[in-house]
Amino acid sequence: MKLLVFAASAHSTSINRRLAEYAARTLAADASLDVPIEIERLDLNDYEMPLFTQDREAQLGSPPQAQAFLDAIARNDAVVVSFAEHNGSYTVAYKNVFDWASRIDNKVYQGRPMVLLATSPGGRGGASVLGQASASLPYQGGEIVASVSVPRFHANFDADTDTLTQPELRAQVEAAMRALYDATKARLNKGP
């Protein structure tokens, strides 16, 4: 089973990247799985493009990075994305990649099962952006299996061991990832 993992952030030390990778590791380490997990990590910095406008699209066409983003989704069976929140919404880095990719294929997530995560240093844990993503991504081809918000990242995540320390949050992430595994396995068994 191939799992695409990324943070909807371009920050080099993104806490959302750490959360997404932690979630993927918890699934890959689950000894009860009968299908091995292959993890592909995506970095939005590799998909930097001019800010999307219809004028730029008419002038430039579709940048190759937009197709490469869609190709990364297509070659994986499921997606885990952790959303950074900027002023209550998506980061510009994510929104720009998404906007360009959606002009090629409006169903950006191509029917892939997804776990949506968000975290922040504050008590809401990116709840606003997670709500936006949960509401809109099904219209863009995402099959949302679960979503988890992790508040107060630095208080609930051990930087030395790269693990969630709060048992309830850890259980929520593990349950979300197991649900993703089950949904993806069922989709793969059903075939095209």
UniProtKB/TrEMBL annotation:
Record's GO cellular component terms: cytosol
Domain NADPH-dependent FMN reductase-like, first and last residues per copy: 1-147
SUPFAM superfamilies: Flavoproteins (SSF52218)
Recorded superkingdom: Bacteria
Any one GO molecular function term: FMN binding
PANTHER family: CHROMATE REDUCTASE, NAD(P)H-DEPENDENT FMN REDUCTASE LOT6
Protein name in UniProt: NADPH-dependent FMN reductase
Organism the protein comes from: Plesiocystis pacifica SIR-1
